[in-house]
Task: inverse folding
């Protein structure tokens, strides 16, 4: 039996989780801008000693098998790319949130991070394979953050998986978001949106978090990005990497075709590339992490 979360409680939950560091926050603001310079990213990382150390550790990790050790931060960032820098920065601040066991979804610790990382890679690949006019690094970041609300409401959904599945099965129009709202008062997109505001995320990222299951509701100017992540999310789930009980219990909005022109062959390539890139990214980020 679940208990509904009030607005006040949701605000308390949001303020009880780690905040982003100043450099992570600035990095998200900067990389969301279409016309930013890499030199600004380099300067930002350079001014944060911990982040610099982590970036160098990642680039020199076994996953990248570089012959020569990279010691300069600008070379490291050029080699890794912005998306990996953003992953490191977010992981450092909010790693616990992403690694949390989602007992309310019967998902193990780390499943959310894996799902988010796969969604991030898939969203970026969708941009590449379709050639849409979107910043691929922004699609990646948005994918990484899209389901963060699950970490906020999971504990409150504990023991209710059977009820949630029953709700979704009972009526054709209901999906897992409806089940979350019926059971605890908020769905994970609403909870995630509250965190996005507390973290002062750029508006485009907040819109993805809020509307990734219903992209048609996103503001027109961000709708393409939201559709790219919507597709990336579904690709991650189709690949068998969801977050437990809710996986594949959402509807794919086929209107993505009005925004993203991608052939079935290209979608198959996306799925393949997600597997390859995931192995590399996950091991490089994990092996250089938690002991700091
Ligand atoms: Fe979601
Ligand atoms: Fe998702």
Result:
């Amino acid at each position: 039996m679940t208990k509904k979360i009030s607005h006040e409680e949701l605000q308390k939950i949001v303020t009880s989780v780690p905040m982003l560091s100043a450099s992570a926050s600035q990095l998200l603001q900067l990389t969301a801008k279409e016309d930013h310079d890499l030199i600004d990213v380099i300067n930002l990382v350079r001014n944060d000693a911990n982040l610099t150390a982590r970036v160098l550790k990642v680039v020199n990790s076994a996953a990248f098998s570089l012959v020569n050790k990279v010691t300069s931060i600008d070379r490291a960032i050029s080699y890794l790319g912005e998306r990996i820098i953003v992953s490191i920065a977010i992981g450092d601040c909010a790693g616990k949130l992403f690694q949390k066991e989602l007992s309310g979804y019967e998902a193990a610790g780390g499943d959310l991070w894996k799902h988010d990382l796969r969604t991030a890679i898939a969203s970026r690949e969708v941009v590449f394979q379709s050639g849409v006019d979107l910043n691929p690094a922004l699609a990646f970041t948005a994918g990484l953050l899209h389901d963060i609300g699950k970490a906020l409401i999971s504990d409150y959904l504990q023991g209710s998986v059977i009820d949630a599945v029953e709700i979704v099965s009972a009526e054709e129009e209901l999906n897992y978001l409806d089940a979350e709202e019926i059971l605890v008062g908020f769905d994970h997109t609403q909870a995630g949106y509250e965190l996005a505001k507390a973290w002062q995320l750029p508006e485009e990222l907040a819109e993805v978090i809020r509307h990734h299951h219903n992209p048609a509701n996103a503001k027109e100017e961000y709708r393409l990005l939201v559709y790219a992540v919507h597709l990336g999310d579904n690709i991650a789930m189709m690949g068998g990497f969801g977050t437990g009980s809710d996986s594949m219990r959402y509807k794919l909005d086929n209107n993505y075709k009005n925004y993203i022109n991608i052939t079935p062959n290209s979608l198959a390539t996306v799925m393949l590339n997600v597997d390859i890139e995931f192995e590399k990214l996950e091991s490089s980020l994990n092996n250089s992490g938690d002991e700091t």
User: Anything to note?
Assistant: The pocket of fe (ii) ion (ligand 2) is lined by residues 115, 119, 146-147, 233 (CB under 6 Å). The radius of gyration is 18 Å. Residues 122 and 232 are 5 Å apart (CA to CA). The domain at 7-16+99-286 is CATH 1.10.3210.10 (Hypothetical protein af1432).
